[in-house]
Amino acid sequence: MSTLSKEHIKQLVRENNFQSVSDVNAYLKDIFKDIIQELLEAELEAELGYAKDDVANKNTDNSRNGYTPKKIKSEFGEIDIQVPRDRKGEFQPKIIPKYQRNVSGIEEKVIALYARGMSTRDISQQIEELYGFSLSPEMVSKITDRIAPEIKEWQQRPLEPIYSFIFMDAIHYKVKDEGRITNRAAYVVLGVTIDGYKDILGIWIGDNESSKFWLGVLNNLKNRGVQDVLIFCVDGLTGLKEAINAAYPKSEVQRCIIHQLRNSFKYVPYKDLKAFSNDFKEVYHAINEEIALEKLYELKEKWGKEYPFAIRSWENNWDVISPFFKFPEEIRKIIYTTNIIEGLHRQFRKVTKTKTIFPTDSSLEKILYLASMNVVKKWTQRYKNWDRVLSQLVIQYPGRLEEYI
Q: What is the distance between the alpha carbons of residues 365 and 352, in angstroms, rounded to a whole number?
C-alpha cells in the first residue's frame, strides 16, 4: 500500500471519528450506495449519449424520466437506491439487472452452507447475523432449489466411452412420502477413467436397494455413452452380477473382498475370530487362484465343520471373487475393497447427519449432489503407479483399450 493511501485512510479516520467496527461498516455502506448510484447514472448516460446537464449535445429522441426506488441486499445490509429511468423504457442496467435485488453473492453463500450440512433455519440465522437482513428458511430452500437444472444437467451429461473400473454401492436414508416415512436408497456410481482419475458418474434415488433398479442405472450409463467397463467392483447384493452381465456382458465382476470377509466373520464367535481371520489371510494374499483355492480347502478342513456358512459363501461366490487373483499388487489394491465409495459415503453422512428425515427425494438428491461436487474438487491426483496398472489392463483385456489410449 502506498504512503498516499495510508495518509488518505488516516484522514478518513480523523474526519469520521470511527469509534467501532459498526461505524466503519456504516460508512462503507454509504460509500457503497453512492458508488452504485453513480454507476447507474453513468450507464444511463452512456445509453442516451449525453450528460444530464448537457442537453445541447442531445442526439436522441429518448430522455431521462425520473427514478424508481429499489431496495437491494448487499454485504453491508439492505440499501435503498434510486434506479434512473428513460422515457422509452429501453434502459436495462447491467450493474444491477432489472429483477436482481441481491448484490452480495448471498445465493452462493447459502448454497455453500447448505452443501456443508447446515439446516435452512441455521443458514437463515447466520445470514441475519452476518449481513443484517432476514432470509427466511423458506427462502433459503427456494435458493437451493435453483440448482435443480444444474443437477439434471449433471445427471444427463455424456460420459467416457470406457472405464477401467466402476464401483457401485447404495447408501440409505429416510424420506417423507405422502405423509409416511419411507426408506430410500441413493444409488451411487463411481468410475475410474483409463487415465486413472476418479469421477462420480451419477446418483439415483430409489426404493431400497435392488438389482432391478441397478439394471436401470446401468442402462442409463449406456445411454450416456459408456460402451465398455473392464471391471465392476461391487458388494454381495443378490442379482447384481446378473444385472451387470445383462448390460455389459464383456465386463468382469469383482466382489469386494472386505465385504466377503465381513459376511464370513458374522458366523464366527469372538473367541475364534482372531485365529479364523489370520487363517483367511492365506486365502486372499495368495499369489494366484490355484494357491488361493488350496488355502481355502485347508481352511475348510480346519473350520468347515464348526462354521460351515463362513466357508460356504466363498465357495458359492468364487466366480466373482477369483478375478482378484490374476492381478498384481497395484490392481489388487484398487479392487480389494469398495472403500473408495464407502469413503464418499462417509462424506455424505457428514453433511446429512443433522437431517434424520428428508422432506422429498429431490431434497436428498440436492444435498448429495452438492456434497459430491465438494468431493470431486479434491480428486486432482490419479491413482498411484497408474502406468503399470494400465499396462496390465491392456494385456489382461486385449483389444478393448487400445483405441482409447
A: 11
Please work out, in degrees rounded to the nearest 5, the angle formed at the alpha carbon of residue 195 by the alpha carbons of 189 and 198. 30
Long-range contacts of 215-219 (CB under 8 A, 24+ apart): 215/243, 215/246, 215/247, 217/168, 217/187, 217/189, 218/243, 218/244, 218/246, 218/247, 218/248, 219/247
CA dist 106 and 143 (Å) reads 9
Rounded to whole angstroms, the Cα distance separating 221 from 138 reads: 35
Cβ within 8 Å of residue 37, ≥6 positions away? 81, 82
Q: Which domain holds residue 297?
A: 159-396
DSSP per-residue string spanning 320-382? HHGGGGGS-HHHHHHHS--HHHHHHHHHHHHHHTT-SSBSSHHHHHHHHHHHHHHHHHH--SP
Report the DSSP beta bridge partners of residue 34: none
Q: Are residues 124 and 47 located together in one domain of the fold?
A: no
Q: What is the C-alpha separation between 124 and 137, in angstroms, rounded? A: 6
Whether 404 maps to a domain, the answer reads no
Q: Which residues contact 280 (CB under 8 A, 6 or more apart)?
A: 261, 264, 299
In a domain, 358, yes or no: yes
Residue 204 included in any domain: yes
Round to whole Å and give the CA distance between 366 and 135.
20
Report how far residue 308's alpha carbon sits from residue 333's, in angstroms, rounded to the nearest whole number: 29
What is the tens place of the pLDDT at every residue in 186-219? 999 999 999 999 999 999 999 888 899 999 999 9
If asked whether residues 117 and 183 sit together in one domain, one would say no
How many angstroms separate the CA atoms of 350 and 366, rounded? 15
Give yes or no for residue 253 having a pLDDT over 70: yes
Do 322 and 220 belong together in one domain? yes
Instruction: Please give the average per-residue pLDDT across 386-405, as a whole number.
Output: 94
- Amino acid identity of residue 144, one-letter, is T
Query: Is this structure's pTM higher than 0.90?
Result: no
Let me know whether 177 and 146 are in one domain: no
